[in-house]
Design goal:
The structure holds two protein chains of two kinds. Chain A is built from twelve helices and no strands. Chain A is mainly alpha-helical. The mean pLDDT of chain A is about 85. In chain B, about 70% of the residues lie in helices and about 0% in strands. The termini of chain B are far apart. The relative contact order of chain B is 0.05. The model of chain B has no long low-confidence stretch (mean pLDDT about 80). Classes of the chains: A mainly alpha, B mainly alpha.
Chain lengths: ~350, ~210
């Protein structure tokens, strides 16, 4: 895009600046639009599984429901509890929202279609997603109310626990790919399985790691069955209890942007990103971004499906799964995979 | 030009946040300012081309250590009056530590200007960028030249971790509280726990 703005007669530095800002705006707008549509899909899937209709009033098939909701919260009053710590109370939803959008900077949507193609892309995502917990903890504490505070305590323990096993899963992927660059990881998956299947997930050593990653992604985004942070039967609405109107909407949008991010990470790290499922020339006729969106959408459908199907975990079971099952398992797999790669001469 | 501007921006924010860490009246605010300082220090590392270290700083310090700080500080029940009462008593100690830090800083700058070590260039410009990427260069050094030191550091951390577990672990007292056996819970079937009864109206149920 820099070349396009240079063509308009700008110097390289200015063209780069304008191109980057334009890229940021385009990605944020598209992510926000996808979030609005995906909330609609979530409610429709949930409705279908529960034998209801789901949203079907606003617009054709209820497609405009999310936009109507957005307009509604925009017109509502933001209520700040008098005992709340005002600055932090208002900062928390902003942090959640910003962090959820910032991680999209390194996600490649197609070959070369990425805002920042940096060498440490995967580490950047890990760093940014580890910041997500601050929004929850700060809102829970600043609300000065007991249920949000319980929720904040739960969230911080839960997110740190599952980040550890996610880290080890990412190490396994990086060992195979030999790079932290997101586009490099996707390219390394071309023809990985038997020279014809694109995607790491077909490898018998990486398939269990994908399962661990998928379940950890559910826990990291506090999605059912791990939605202990906003368990409505115990904590009212968790850390969001005291929030209203736009502040609440920012939490809502940030949460769904994070879920979409985790779905796209599943796609990029294990299912071949923008590459078609099979390495056959005719499949490359479909644009890469279509494959990327299809795969991401498939994972989002799985997220909704699980939400509608599985009952909530007990908190001690959640902690046990993270620390006593996933952590030892992923540690063993890091050792086994490095040994396997050395033995088969992968690094030679 | 833009680098200089970015450096002064990030450096100023680091210093200002560090000042706010000790000036903030509420401990939770102090921790949040500390996180701000960590974050901008990471930005400074990106500026000198150490992107790997910058990401590690954010992941380890901001993502894990500071969360635990915040966790602990939020749960403390702090008496602010008692905290300020100790200010005068601890003032000489604080002054002493400040003086030591200042002396060390001056010494370090002096040695650096004298050109004692060849890590960077004394006029303030950064070292020549390496040909290999950050991660490769660090990995080659850690697992090649400094393998022994690296492994020793690892062993020390492992010992510290096991030590912390041993110190805090309390074996359950015999007969204190039933422990949960997850396998047993999963194997339990509805038939083991429930019975279907179809009582007549006005009759009780005998279990």
């Amino acid at each position: 895009m820099t070349e396009f703005f240079q063509g308009l007669g700008l110097s390289y530095e200015w063209a780069w600046t304008v191109a980057t800002i334009a890229g940021v705006l385009i990605i944020s707008l598209l992510v926000m639009f996808s979030v609005a549509m995906v909330i609609y899909v979530d409610r429709k899937v949930l409705g279908a599984i529960m034998l209801r209709r789901g949203p079907n009033v606003v617009g054709p098939f209820g497609l405009l429901q999310s936009f109507a909701d957005g307009l509604k919260v925009f017109l509502q009053e933001t209520i700040i509890p008098s005992a709340a710590n005002k600055g932090i109370f208002l900062l928390a939803p902003i942090i959640t929202f910003t962090v959820a959008l910032a991680a999209w900077a390194v996600i490649p949507f197609d070959a070369g279609v990425v805002l920042a193609d940096i060498n440490v892309g995967l580490l950047y995502i890990l760093a940014i997603s580890s910041l997500g917990v601050y929004g929850v903890v700060m809102s829970g504490w600043a609300s000065n109310s007991k249920y949000p505070f319980f929720s904040a305590m739960r969230a911080s323990a839960q997110m740190i626990s599952y980040e550890v096993s996610i880290g080890f899963v990412l190490v396994c992927v990086v060992l195979f790919a030999g790079t932290f660059n997101m586009s490099g990881i996707v390219e390394a998956q071309r023809g990985f399985g038997l020279g014809i299947i694109n995607g790491y997930v077909v490898h018998p050593l990486l398939f269990p790691m994908w399962v661990v990653f998928f379940i950890s992604a559910l826990a990291e985004t506090a999605r059912a069955p791990f939605d202990l942070t906003e368990a409505e039967s115990e904590l009212v609405a968790g850390y969001q209890t005291e929030y209203s109107s736009m502040a609440f909407a920012l939490f809502w949008l940030g949460e769904y942007a994070n879920i979409l991010l985790m779905c796209s990470l599943n796609t990029l790290l294990f299912w071949g990103g923008w590459l078609p499922p099979l390495d056959i020339p005719v499949l490359y006729a479909v644009p890469g971004i279509v494959w990327f969106l299809l795969k991401t959408f498939m994972f989002f459908f799985m997220f909704s499906w699980i939400w509608a199907t599985v009952p909530r975990y007990r908190y001690d079971q959640l902690m046990r799964l993270g620390w006593k099952v996933f952590l030892p398992m992923s540690l063993v797999f890091v050792a086994v995979i490095s040994g396997y790669l050395m033995a088969t001469g992968h690094f030679a | 030009m833009i680098q200089v501007f970015a450096f002064y921006l990030f450096a100023a924010i680091v210093v200002a946040s560090a000042v706010m860490v000790i000036m903030a009246r509420h401990p939770v605010h102090s921790v949040l300012w500390l996180i701000m300082a960590f974050f901008n220090a990471a930005a400074l590392m990106v500026l000198v081309g150490a992107e790997f270290l910058a990401m590690l700083l954010v992941i380890v310090y901001v993502g894990a250590v500071a969360v635990l700080f915040l966790f602990v500080v939020m749960m403390l029940d702090i008496d602010f009056a008692a905290m300020r009462a100790g200010f005068i008593r601890n003032f000489p100690l604080g002054l002493l530590m400040a003086a030591i830090l200042l002396a060390e800083l001056l010494l370090a700058v002096g040695v650096y200007n004298a050109g004692g070590i060849t890590l960077g260039v004394a006029d303030g410009s950064a070292m020549q960028p390496a040909t290999a990427s950050n991660i490769e260069a660090l990995g080659a050094l850690l697992f090649g030249r400094y393998i022994l030191l690296f492994e020793i550091a690892g062993i020390i951390l492992l010992v510290a971790m096991i030590g912390a577990i041993v110190l805090t672990f309390q074996p359950p007292k015999p007969g204190a509280r039933a422990r949960q056996d997850i396998g047993k819970q999963i194997r339990r079937r509805p038939e083991d726990a429930t019975v279907m009864k179809n009582p007549e109206i006005g009759q009780g149920v005998e279990l």
